[in-house]
Automatic annotation (TrEMBL):
<dbReference type="Pfam" id="PF13238">
    <property type="entry name" value="AAA_18"/>
</dbReference>
<comment type="subunit">
    <text>Monomer and homodimer. Interacts with small ribosomal subunit protein uS11. Not a structural component of 43S pre-ribosomes, but transiently interacts with them by binding to uS11.</text>
</comment>
<feature type="region of interest" description="LID">
    <location>
        <begin position="113"/>
        <end position="123"/>
    </location>
</feature>
<keyword id="KW-0547">Nucleotide-binding</keyword>
<protein>
    <recommendedName>
        <fullName>Adenylate kinase isoenzyme 6 homolog</fullName>
        <ecNumber>2.7.4.3</ecNumber>
    </recommendedName>
</protein>
<comment type="similarity">
    <text>Belongs to the adenylate kinase family. AK6 subfamily.</text>
</comment>
<feature type="binding site">
    <location>
        <position position="23"/>
    </location>
    <ligand>
        <name>ATP</name>
    </ligand>
</feature>
<dbReference type="InterPro" id="IPR020618">
    <property type="entry name" value="Adenyl_kinase_AK6"/>
</dbReference>
<keyword id="KW-0698">rRNA processing</keyword>
<dbReference type="GO" id="GO:0005634">
    <property type="term" value="C:nucleus"/>
</dbReference>
<keyword id="KW-0690">Ribosome biogenesis</keyword>
<feature type="region of interest" description="NMPbind">
    <location>
        <begin position="38"/>
        <end position="61"/>
    </location>
</feature>
<keyword id="KW-0418">Kinase</keyword>
<keyword id="KW-0808">Transferase</keyword>
<feature type="binding site">
    <location>
        <position position="21"/>
    </location>
    <ligand>
        <name>ATP</name>
    </ligand>
</feature>
<dbReference type="GO" id="GO:0004017">
    <property type="term" value="F:AMP kinase activity"/>
</dbReference>
<feature type="binding site">
    <location>
        <position position="18"/>
    </location>
    <ligand>
        <name>ATP</name>
    </ligand>
</feature>
Amino acid sequence: METRSRTAPNILVTGTPGVGKSTLCEKLSEATGLKWLEILKIAKENNCLEEYDPVYKCCTLDEDKLLDGLEEVMSAGGNIVDYHSCEPFPERWFDIVFVLQTDNTTLYDRLIGRGYEGIKLADNIDCEIFQIVFQEAKSSYKSNIVHRLSNISEEELENNLQRIYGWLQQWFYENQLP
Ligand SMILES: Nc1ncnc2c1ncn2[C@@H]1O[C@H](COP(=O)(O)OP(=O)(O)O)[C@@H](O)[C@H]1O
Ligand SMILES: [Mg+2]
């Protein structure tokens, strides 16, 4: 799938749970009309979850089934994919990748607020400290399409949205049909 065959770009919004992906994606989708694909929700709705992990209190993904189901919509373009990892997805799906980040105190407070505890809480904080998702993104996509965005405050959220709108405008300008 070539970028040129899409009439609108595909954006990946990734980062450790709690960095604010869903909050940003919802606003971005409302403002732009791009489709917000919240991967965990889609996986649940389409029976793409495998066995339950009692320690992490979550399920693993049936990646093959999920990716097959998304291929058509991703080929068409115009999607914002929201997921805490970029590992399952083919590189060709995305025109740009945003990795949201916070400081550890902010993330800790947000995850506690969401009821995370024990190993799940500690692992997610470690994930942010070691920038695991950013490292993963850098090794999965061309480095010039991977961008880190600090997303600690409402002000930063607004700046991040403006930056993405700017990038989108440029994409449509460069890829407009003759
Ligand atoms: N930029 C921000 N400033 C302040 N609070 C935020 C910001 N982004 C998200 N939040 C809050 O942080 C929590 C986690 O956000 P959420 O979007 O659910 O994260 P994720 O989808 O990455 O797990 C929510 O309570 C949300 O309101
Ligand atoms: Mg979310």
